Amino acid sequence: MPDFIFWTVYVFVIGLCIGSFLNVVVLRGLTGESIVLPPSHCTKCNHKLAWYDNIPVISYLFLLGKCRYCHEKISIQYPLVELFTGFTFAGIFYKFAKMGFSLNVLFLMIAAALFIVIAVTDIKERVILTVHTYILAVLGLIYNFFNFANANNTKIHFFVLGFDISIYQAFVYSILGLIAGFAVMNGVALLCKAITKKDCFGDGDAYILGALGAFFGIVNVIVISILSVVIWGVLCVPAFIYKLFKAKEFKLLSSIILFSIAAVLFALGEYFNVFDSNLFHWFAYLLVACIGLYCCKLLISSIKNGSNLTVIPFGPALIFAAFFVMFVLF
Ligand SMILES: [Zn+2]
Known about the structure:
Blueprint: H1 2-31, H2 58-62, H3 77-96, H4 103-125, H5 130-145, E1 155-160, E2 163-168, H6 169-196, H7 203-246, H8 250-271, H9 278-304, H10 315-329
Antiparallel strand pairs: 1-2
Helix pairs in contact: 1-3, 1-4, 3-4, 4-5, 4-10, 5-6, 5-7, 6-7, 7-10, 8-9
Zinc ion (ZN) binds at residues 42, 44-45, 47, 67, 69-70, 72.
């Protein structure tokens, strides 16, 4: 066991270095520079960085978050992505490599690296580069074609022109997941556009959900769809309330707060069984639903009137849900 802990720490350090590379992938993906060719340089003064300026996390701490040459601030994104990648890789190794390092572990790590690149690019510049999602989709198809996850080894037989073709069930799920993820997200985006007459989601979100479907399969992509909405909601509410407050939209703000209080009271009432009569129960239910619908009405008219209050990227929520599936359901 101490051996295994040692290797987990070792993978953590490797993860830090990969994270450092992922920062470069994000940055150069956005500027269109090659990933390998120009050596590392400061984004502000373009000074070439020495090896000791490039040690993950440590250089940032040592330089107190400033460029050695021009003393410009270095974004906190760099050490955060490095640390996050380190912990993610160590987590994958700890959870999946107990039986030894396998192709499954390698594929999960590459997928996690892509998740991080997609999420950071989206958070940083609100764009999703389709190339990242294409790579993830192809990776997912290969992963399931060879059934590296080994979760279920069932093979499905197809009889085509007298030939017996057998394919892993995982691969069939992967193709269905790719189609379903892409279709569901596009469907939701079209629906939202029909209601609000505005683009609520970027095109990239459909590519992300499709690629996640290819990797995790049709069953898990449904879980990811539902979970990401919940995560998005939880992340959005504080940001949303803050924005409403700043924009002085007190009508919408007060109705949302009223709805939240009513919903929490209702849930508590359900939990502690305070509704002794059925009539009272339905009345409370109706009241919460009405306030909720009223909020939706205000929200839709606010979006129609051109407010940008609801624009909070959905991609990171999808990625968050994907990590959940990887660590909890896999
Ligand atoms: Zn500099």
